Amino acid sequence: MSDADATVVLDNVCKIYAGRRVVSDLSYALHPGQVVALVGHNGAGKTTQIKMMLGLTRPDGGRLSVLGADPGHGRGARRALGYLPESVQFHLAFTGRETLAFYARLKGLPASGHDALFARVGLAEAADRAVRTYSKGMRQRLGLAQALLGSPRLLLLDEPTSGLDPALRRELYGIVADLARQGATVLLSSHALTELEGHAERVIVINRGRKIADGTLDELRALAGLPSRLNCVLDGAPQLVELSQSEKPAVLRGLLDRGATRITLEDPSLDDIYAHFLKREAA
């Protein structure tokens, strides 16, 4: 994909706070229809990148383009962008419906007619209750609803499953997948790495403000060279075999030919891959 078609383009972007580079020479592009996970430890620069994409802070070097424009400029671009922060804050006296109406007006959208959106995030029966009566998970749902106002072309989610129960986490990732199928770009910043597997088609690993790995999960597994773990029962005894990605087909055929049973194969997880790249950087 070319950068001309990209939703977001970072080209050697850097950001400096108090004389310290929190983002350094960062380059990548995000494209329509992609669900991308941005992973890194606390202080790695993930939220700073999102703030720059929102136009809340500006790069100190390099070029950043969001929806074909300078971030934060133009109502059209703001209307096409959705954002869910890590900690959502709402006026406690407002009802859920009044809250969505307020954010809709900020985007230049109709203030009413959001029943389908309340239903989508599981707040249909609480829409007319005051936000002060909402649990943390319900406020997170309301935050997701405001992020989805206007069917955004770019959705930025910072720790989106914080406070959500397992059922709503599945629903959230279902919504994310639907948006991507409709052509939206979704950027997920999260510490819940295992949770991201199967939901993000691409992973960008950030360490100290620099990109240290970027690719699909399979590409990162191959790049890391971590072995898969195969458990089975052979000749009545449990066996554990570590094998590379290229060895898997031949080893599996051999074990089946020898009558192995209870075969389970565990590929390196995103946690394993992330730890590998951090250790490589430290070395």
From TrEMBL:
Record's protein name: ATP-binding cassette domain-containing protein
Keyword Secreted assigned: no
Keywords assigned: ATP-binding, Nucleotide-binding, Transport
SUPFAM superfamilies in the cross-refs: P-loop containing nucleoside triphosphate hydrolases
Domain of life of the native organism: Bacteria
Keyword Coiled coil: no
A molecular-function term among this protein's GO annotations: ATP binding
Matching PANTHER family: ABC TRANSPORTER ATP-BINDING PROTEIN ALBC-RELATED
